[in-house]
Amino acid sequence: MTLAARDVVGPSPCRDLPKGPMRLALLHFLLLTASLSAQTVWLVPDNTSVDAVIALAAPGDTVQLATTHPPFTINKGVHVVGAPGGTSITYLQPPNLPGPGSIVVAVPAGQRAVLRGVQVEDSYFQGSASEGFLELRSGQCEVSEVGVGGPIQVRGGNHVLQRITGPGTWLNQSGGICSVADSTFHAVFRLSSPFGFGGVGVRQTGGLLLASHVSLRGTDGSGPDSAKSAMLATGGAAYLTDCTLQGGNLGFAWFPPAAPALVGNQLVHFARTTLTDGVGAPPSSGYSVEPAMVGLSCQGVPTLGGSFT
């Protein structure tokens, strides 16, 4: 008899484990007994360490989350999937650096991870707020249906982002290859942002960005902050097809001017992309138009010899 991956799971008593060290010990036992194939499904009870489960899982396994978990690191090619109703990633106690509600992806060469269906939350303690973030450091990871309180930071590796639509999520790329489709990056300015880059939809200082059917927007001028561009590229190269970029508008008459949709570095290339500068802002600059470029987006993961949409 052949078992599908979803048939090999930790039994339902995972939800009824006692609290404390005994709970974790029993959890490990149940998960170990579930490891019957190379594609095991690991059920992670609510408020349980995801790191502990990933340590036990093998590349290709699925880690099925519950509704709330603390931050974790994906350091192997596992599939981390949120609950059907959504999963929140947030600190359950006052956070320490690197930050609240954070997920780090550092996958070895030759392995491919998946992260789907989670919301990386901000954290609030003693009246102060800290941004959640997703950091993609190395390897390959497919990220879909993920929302982030702060930035998605691409440092290295080769990653695919699909259907990223969380309010306030923005992209900060300093290295690697990042392919994005069917997503929105509508930044929210945060005066206390530890990343210091609030308000810009996409900030690129390095790496290669490939985007298709993506909406970018910078924040409007408000309070002590001036309007921001939808995209600011000071390094790397970017190719955008069928995208829209909207610069922030002027908030009040005494603030600095509205922002252009794009401030580029001459290595930004567009096809069928709309640039809308903020009212009265300087025109967008630092880009070229390449009408022959084609952007493709596919449903699922294509396989050699197989058909896909």
Number of strands: 24
What's the mean pLDDT score? Answer: 81
| Helix-strand string | HEHEEEEEEEEEEEEEEEEEEEEEEE
Shape: globular
Please give the count of helices.
2
Radius of gyration over C-alpha positions, nearest whole angstrom: 21 Å
Q: Span from first to last CA?
A: 31 Å
Q: What is the strand content?
A: 35-45%
Judged by helices, strands and strand pairing, the structural class is: mainly beta
Provide the low-confidence segments as ranges: 1-37
Largest sheet: 18 strands, parallel
Helix content: under 10%
List keywords for this structure.
mainly beta, 18-stranded parallel sheet, 4-stranded parallel sheet, 24 strands, 7% helix, globular
Topology:
Blueprint: H1 21-34, E1 41-43, H2 50-56, E2 62-64, E3 68-69, E4 72-74, E5 79-81, E6 87-89, E7 103-106, E8 112-116, E9 118-120, E10 123-125, E11 128-130, E12 134-138, E13 140-144, E14 147-148, E15 151-154, E16 158-162, E17 170-173, E18 177-186, E19 202-217, E20 231-241, E21 244-246, E22 262-271, E23 274-276, E24 285-289
Parallel strand pairs: 1-2, 2-5, 3-6, 4-7, 5-8, 6-9, 7-12, 8-13, 9-14, 12-15, 13-16, 15-17, 16-18, 17-19, 18-19, 19-20, 19-21, 20-22, 21-23, 22-24
Antiparallel strand pairs: 10-11
